Amino acid sequence: MPREIRLNAFDMFCPGHIQQGLWTHPQDQSVRMNDIRYWMEYAQRLEKGLFDGIFFADVLGVYDVFGGSPDAAVRNAVQIPANDPSIVIPAMAAVTKHLGFGITCNLTYEQPFLFARRMSTLDHLTGGRIGWNIVTGYLDSAARAIGLKGQTAHDDRYDLADEFMSLVYKLWEGSWDDDALVMDREAGVFADPAKVRTIHHEGPQYKVDAMHLCSPSPQRTPVLYQAGSSDRGRRFAGTHAECVFVNGQKKEDVKAIVSDITSRAVANGRAAEDIKLFLGATLIIGRTEAEAQEKFAEYRRYASSEAALVHAAASMGIDFSRYDLDEPIETGKSQAIVSNIAIMNKAAGPKWTRRKLLEQMVLGSRQTPWVGSAEQIADTMICWSEETGIAGFNLSRTVTPASIDDVIDMLVPVLQERGVYKTSYTDGTYREKLFGHARLPASHTGASHNRSHLPQ
After folding, report:
1. Structurally, what CATH architecture does the domain formed by 6-61+77-302+370-453 represent?
2. CB-based contacts of 38, cutoff 8 Å, min separation 6
3. C-alpha span between 19 and 67 (Å, rounded)
4. Residues 6+ positions from 257 with CB-CB distance below 8 Å
5. What kind and span of H or E run contains 323?
6. Angstrom distance (rounded) from CA 120 to CA 381
7. DSSP letter (8 states) at residue 172
8. Contacts of 16 (CB under 8 A, 6+ apart)
9. pLDDT value of residue 336
10. Residue 424 contacts residue 38 (beta carbons within 8 Å)
């Protein structure tokens, strides 16, 4: 039986997300980002295409590594301006019934008690369709924005994240019993105080003595995404993540990541089927290969090399403006996204240059697009799914909404004909659609805080 392929739209509340420069294309509508109708229409499009969800990226700082200044980022709209994606989700949920919403929130700069309330609120308002992409950050500018001199070390951020997760699990899973809400109008009792408890937490980073302010939402804990591919990030994913977002240009590398993270999850007592990995991909689709190649050539004319270097400089923690075109790049010890440096070292060798980096960024990012007819793209996706074990793809936009419309109008029917894509949604929460159960399974570390899983 063929593997079902799942699709998420990968986007950000900004004009220039992954493929830098394409906001300048005359057909691109991402400049409408401040118009709430843009996002409502977007959500309706995705639900028409039976997408599992939209995965919102986010950053809390400006990209100021390239040239030691934010000027190039501001000039080229490299993920700035960037609005808060959590604000727009209720509007998108109001015009859809099934679409899931994965939101990136940097726990390093969040207060756990307030964050837990915000996510529970979103889970209530969406009817159980909220997911959280857990990140620890990689921008010094974000640290400075909240009064710090710079980021803490990469692995130390994950140590903080482990405690953060323990605390929010206690709030989401342990503060309220499922039957705490009585809502007895005659007796005047809304909730049973005996079934709502105060959470006491005192750890190295956080101290909380309070009950969760929200009643149990449909999922309690949001669907947990994570995108770290470093060794420490994979260890974190094996413990906490239900869905993992990976990037990679070679099947054998992605297959190894899938195997490693799944093995780590199993080693933590979890079932292999309770963790799914999604591959980042950029698709350029035509009704024929020639039409797709023509579209690709057109899009390349709008891509920005400078903007691409701005994005890469921030994500790798390297100021590429300091290097000549063919001067070997000194990677050193970065506190940014260390897996990005490892991927580049593997792709171009340890002494890669700006020229080699730019050769990879044909559409303004290091994610090489797949170009072809719908049938060819379907073949590619099925091959990646079967050979690597990924569950699906996070599709980054090129020209919006044209790139999403191409997927819906041309690719989805072919995937359905091949028997690898759903023809309708199943009912239930985001987690039910992905895994078949509404709440965290008993084997997940977060579920240990839920009294229904405790020995009676």
Report:
1. Alpha-Beta Barrel (3.20)
2. 29, 32
3. 20
4. 229, 234, 246, 248, 277
5. none
6. 34
7. I
8. 22, 23, 30, 76, 77, 78, 79, 80, 307
9. 45
10. no
pTM over 0.90: yes
| Bridge partner residues of 396 (DSSP) | 10
- Bridge partners of residue 245, in order along the sequence: 278
Radius of gyration of the chain (CA): 22
pLDDT digits (tens, 9 = 90+) for 162-215: 999 999 999 999 999 999 999 999 999 999 999 999 999 999 999 999 999 999
Grouping H, G, I as helix, E, B as strand and the rest as coil, residue 62 is: coil
Identify the pLDDT of residue 456.
41
Query: What are 310's two structure tokens?
Result: 């701005």
Q: What pLDDT, on the 0 to 100 scale, is given for residue 453?
A: 59
Q: What is the pLDDT of residues 381-414, one digit of tens each?
A: 999 999 999 999 999 999 999 999 999 999 999 9
Interhelix angle 231-240/154-169, nearest 10 degrees: 10
Torsion region of 194: left, alpha or beta (phi above 0 gives left; psi -120 to 50 gives alpha): alpha
- How many CB atoms are located within 10 Å of the residue 178 CB? 13
Distance CA 292, CA 406 (A): 11
Tokens matching residue 227: 């995108």
pLDDT range class, residue 365, cuts 50, 70, 90: confident
The angle formed by the CA atoms of residues 269, 273 and 275, to the nearest 5 degrees, is 80
Four-CA torsion 146, 148, 154, 157, nearest 10 degrees: -60
Is 309 exposed, middle or buried, given 0-12, 13-18 or 19+ CB atoms closer than 10 A? buried
Structure-block tokens of residue 56: 């919102």
Distant-in-sequence contacts of 75-78, Cβ < 8 A, 24+ apart: 76/16, 76/20, 76/21, 76/304, 76/306, 76/307, 76/310, 77/14, 77/15, 77/16, 77/23, 77/307, 78/16, 78/20, 78/307, 78/310, 78/311
Question: What does pLDDT average to over the chain?
Answer: 92
Q: What pLDDT is recorded for position 337?
A: 46
Structure tokens at 394: 């996070």
Tell me the C-alpha distance between 298 and 254, whole Å.
30
Q: How many residues does the chain have?
A: 456
Q: What is the DSSP letter of 173?
A: I
In angstroms, the CA 404 to CA 364 distance is: 18
